[in-house]
Structure formats: C-alpha cells, structure tokens
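Key idea: predict the complex, not the pieces.
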Amino acid sequence: MGSSAVSGLLVLLLVSVSYGLDNGLAGTPPMGWMAWERFRCNTDCIDDLQNCISEALFRDMADRLSEDGWRELGYEYLIIDDCWMLDQRDKEGRLQPDPSRFPGGIAKLARYVHDRGLKLGIYADMGSHTCMGFPGTPLHKIQIDAQTFASWGVDYLKFDGCYSNPVEQMLGYPMMSAALNDTGRPMVYSCSWPAYLGGLPPNVNYSLLGEICHLWRNYDDIEDSWDSVQDIIQWFSDNQDDLQPAAGPGRWNDPDMLIIGNFGLSVDQARSQMALWAVMASPLIMSNDLRNLDPNMRAILQNKVAISINQDPMGVQGRRLLQKKSGIDVYWRPLSSSCSALVFLSRRTDMPYLYHTYLSKLNYEAGSYQVYDVFSGSTRTGLNSTSKFSVSINPSGVVMWYVSPEEPSSQTRSDPAPHRELDSEFRLHKSSIGRLTVL
Ligand code: GLA
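Result:
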C-alpha cells in the first residue's frame, strides 16, 4: 500500500474514532437471547418449521421472554444471528431478509418485539460474506447497512468478521461505530473484531475497543459441551491480566452465549457456567429453546442473586484468585456496597471435594461477614475472616457465594437500592445454614 493510501486510511480511522459510539447503553452487561448456538443456520422451514431461522422462531422466543418472567429479570435483547438474509441485496443496495422465512420483514418483527417490551438485535459481517456465506458488509456498505438497521428499528448489532482482513477490520469496526451513531438511533454494538486477531494485545487494542464497541467477542465460538465451556473459562482466566481491565460499564468482554438448557451440560456444569459468567461480568445471552426448558436449567438462568452479581452497577470484572493443584479454582468479584462474590470451581472429575480455607486467605479484610450461597439458598452470618470454613464442591461444579460485611451497626444501616432484591432473598433463607461448615 502506498504512503498516501496509508495516511488516507489513518485519517478515515481518526475521523471514525472521534465520532465513536457513546450512547450510554450497556451500562451493565447486556442480557437476552440469541439464535446461533442452539439453532445455527437451519434454513429448512419445510421439514423443520419449528426450528428453522424464521420470523416465527423469533416471535416464539419473544413470547417466551415476555411471558415467562425473563424480561423482568433483565433478559431483554432478542438477537437474530447469521442466515436471516436473502443471498443478494435489493435494487437500492440494501440487505434484505429472505422473504420465504421472514415474510413480514424485519421492521414488522421489531414492532412485535418492541410491543412486548423487548429489544431486537441483528447480525451482519464486516467482510465480503457472513460466516455462513450470506452477503457481507464491506467498507462501502457500512453506511447503508447502519441506516437500514436503524430504519427497521433495530436496537443491537452483532458485527462479525469472517471474510475480512486485519486492515479492513481496523477501518470497518470504527466506521460502523460512527455510522451507527450517525443514525441517531441508540444501538448496542457488539464487535467480533478481537476474536479474529487472537484476542490479545498487542494485536488487539482494548482501549480503542472500549471507545467504539459496547461488547466484543474475544475468543472461539462456544459449543454445546462442558469441554467448550471449560476451555473458554480457562482462556479468559489465563489471560485475565489483559482482559479484566478492559471491562467496565459500557464495555464488556464477551465469552459467548449461555448454553444452559441445551444438551451438553449437567446441572452442576450449568451452575458453573452461570457462576463464571456472573463473576466475569459477561453478557448473559442465552442460546437455548425457551419453549422447552428443563425446570432446573430455568431456575439457574433465572437465579436472581447470580443475575444481580452479574449486573452489579460498579461493573468490575472478577478475577481468578487461586488455581490449586487439587483442581479447585477460586474466583472473586468486588461488588458495590463493599460486597463481593466468590466462586469455588472444581475441575476435578472424581467426587465432591471438601475445600478448606478462610476469608483472610482470599484477600478479605479483618472482620465478620455474612455469606449467601447463591445456588443452595443457605445463609451464614458471623463468619470471621480468620475462621476456617469448608465448602463441598461437586466435580465440574461450583459453590458461589455472595459475601457482605457485617457491621455492629448493620441493624440501623439503610441498604442501598440495588440490593433490595438480594436482601429479600436473604430474609427468605436466613434460617438455613446448609452445607457451609465453620470449623
Ligand atoms: C461466527 C460467530 C458465531 C456466529 C457464526 C454465524 O462463527 O463467532 O457467533 O455468529 O459466525 O455464522
């Protein structure tokens, strides 16, 4: 590339960045539902009408999100992934949905979704084609595609990166951010850019991403298996020094969808995914069949305390504190009002493991704490930071704690609003001590 071309590109990039996305959205990690992991690119609406990528599928999921208690818990974005398009643009150069599967068009679907108090997300790809070969959004189409999405009433864009090169990505991701801003319609912007660059500095510039995107995929696609979930947890934890500081209100790392409720995870493994996504301040975007969910899996996804930890307004991503030879890892996330979350994760494959420790060993200040076990619902008060305790952690499972400091004056302290929900849960469970043992 000649030097004038390079400087032209740089000017374009700077212009784009200076008009980057800052629309106040995604102050906490986005929550919702996305088609990809569960429904993939199933376009067979003849033999598999119930499960093909079509407006009927999204209407079904909108009904479930709004009628089964999901929306009230925060699961508000309903996101179309790949394979919604016709294989060519219309006469005006706009992307268009496949009319045989989306006969009403996207604008009508957006109205359906909005009428139910939800928001609609859509998928496009910063390259010649989407990953499944549908029309892409190369640089010269960014403007028109942003405008089309806004005109349809879209609220969220997942911008993938198949069939593009790093130079195009460096230009295209900031350009789309600016183009979305220019539409005047507030949209959440999810960038797959880092996942195409290996996910780590120096190839990935997380400060720039934080300015132009609300969330970003860092790593490989999730699959319906514990191996996949474990691999993702491992990669994010091994690289937490680079990733953890990048996250905060309006800018989130995205380890991909929650697969809870599908075929690959046991109840313990599903709790592990929920717990880790909560402490990692990850978007809680399910990909499952909401029409047909096992009650245990629904309870995990609808666990109010896990969600409240994930959605903590301070927005600090948690970290792995310890990785023990015994196969136990300990994670910690600071929360507002001097509270915190602890997760004890077992990588073991034999039997429940009794892990002994004390809070001061996990960086807690001297004092007394109240502990709420997020999945068993048991509560323990008066846990001194220097008292030994043990937790029994199932193989590939977790114990997750919400920890709050206990002050002698706590009787008179008025609790801040974000934790009212939690406090009522505590009251519900205050009598039981459960599997927490103070030694
Ligand atoms: C990529 C993305 C996935 C999904 C598919 C669709 O693999 O990472 O999340 O969007 O493309 O083709």
